[in-house]
């Protein structure tokens, strides 16, 4: 157990040192969330100051953008850290070492969390300073929202990493596009009721839907939907298990077919 924890810590430290050694990598983590926040923040200001019917829901818009970025950046942080191993052709070396798949996955999760904190906290602060929107007004539910979104991002990241291992660089584009495919069904900017009835079961099968419905309840009604968060956490436990199982299965398949040695060529 101690050796396993040491390997996880060593891999996490390795990824952290790589990130810390490049100011451009650090800048990129903050740059994109900040630019998105500025665009949506100015729209939030316009709606809030206007006399339009949407003025009362302007806070929902900015809150949704910030939480969606947690999900999106969490998945990107996981996947891009893994892709560093592919680009440097180091994955085969890792798999020939005592490092176990779950240890690699755990280190990628920890690094995803580190990258997420580095990129998210400054943006939340800027959102408050520039636009007066306090994301912590969501109350203690914010921690539940954050936890569930991070777990979802890891589950998706595991599947994407497994597909890249198995299919090669042909699946690399999934790192950028898979979250966009889910965006319309996660009800980020609108309630589930806005979807056609036949899409409701699909929306409720996606864990982010529970988070964004909970966010709207917190901001509009001042209530924390414990039931939604418990259901979301249970679904996340299932999806995380399925994601890791998929990751291991695709890794074993690539090993069997000798794909690890030709990765990156």
Topology overview:
Elements lengths: L1 H19 L2 H27 L8 H30 L3 H5 L5 H31 L9 H27 L6 H9 L17 H5 L2 H15 L4 H31 L2 H4 L3
Helix pairs in contact: 1-5, 2-3, 2-5, 3-5, 3-6, 3-9, 6-9, 6-10, 9-10
Query: What's the overall geometry?
Result: globular
- Calculate Rg over CA atoms: 19 Å
**Uncertain runs with pLDDT below 50, 5 residues or more?**
none
How would a crystallographer describe the biggest sheet?
Answer: none
**Number of β-strand runs:** 0
Order of helices and strands: HHHHHHHHHHH
Helical/strand content category: mainly alpha
Strand percentage lies at under 5%
Summarize the structure.
By secondary structure, the chain is mostly helical. It has helices at residues 2-20, 23-49, 58-87, 91-95, 101-131, 141-167, 174-182, 200-204, 207-221, 226-256, 259-262. It has one domain (2-262).
Describe this structure in words.
This protein has 265 residues and is mostly helical. It has one domain (2-262). It contains eleven helices and no strands. The radius of gyration is 19 Å and the shape is globular. The two termini are 36 Å apart.
What structural keywords apply?
265 residues; mainly alpha; 11 helices; 77% helix; 0% strand
């Amino acid at each position: 157990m101690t050796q396993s924890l040491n390997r996880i810590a060593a891999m996490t430290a390795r990824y952290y040192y790589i990130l810390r050694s490049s100011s451009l990598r650090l800048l990129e983590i903050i740059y994109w969330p900040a630019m998105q926040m500025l665009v949506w923040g100015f729209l939030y200001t316009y709606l809030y100051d206007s006399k339009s019917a949407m003025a009362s829901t302007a806070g929902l818009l900015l809150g949704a953008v910030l939480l969606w970025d947690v999900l999106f950046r969490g998945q990107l942080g996981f996947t891009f850290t893994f892709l560093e191993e592919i680009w440097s052709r180091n994955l085969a070396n890792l798999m020939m070492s005592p490092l176990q798949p779950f240890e690699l996955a755990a280190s990628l999760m920890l690094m995803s969390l580190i990258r997420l904190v580095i990129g998210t906290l400054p943006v939340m602060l800027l959102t408050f300073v520039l636009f007066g929107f306090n994301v912590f007004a969501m109350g203690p539910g914010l921690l539940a929202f954050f936890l569930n979104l991070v777990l979802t991002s890891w589950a998706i990241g595991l599947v994407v990493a497994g597909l890249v291992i198995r299919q090669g660089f042909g699946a690399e584009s999934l790192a950028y596009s898979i979250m966009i495919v889910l965006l319309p069904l996660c009800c980020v900017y609108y309630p589930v009721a806005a979807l056609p009835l036949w899409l409701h079961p699909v929306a409720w099968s996606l864990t982010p839907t529970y988070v964004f419905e909970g966010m709207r309840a917190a901001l509009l009604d001042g209530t924390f939907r414990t039931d939604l968060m418990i259901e979301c956490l249970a679904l996340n436990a299932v999806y995380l298990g399925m994601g890791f199982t998929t990751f291991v299965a695709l890794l074993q398949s690539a090993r069997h077919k000798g794909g690890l040695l030709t990765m990156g060529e």
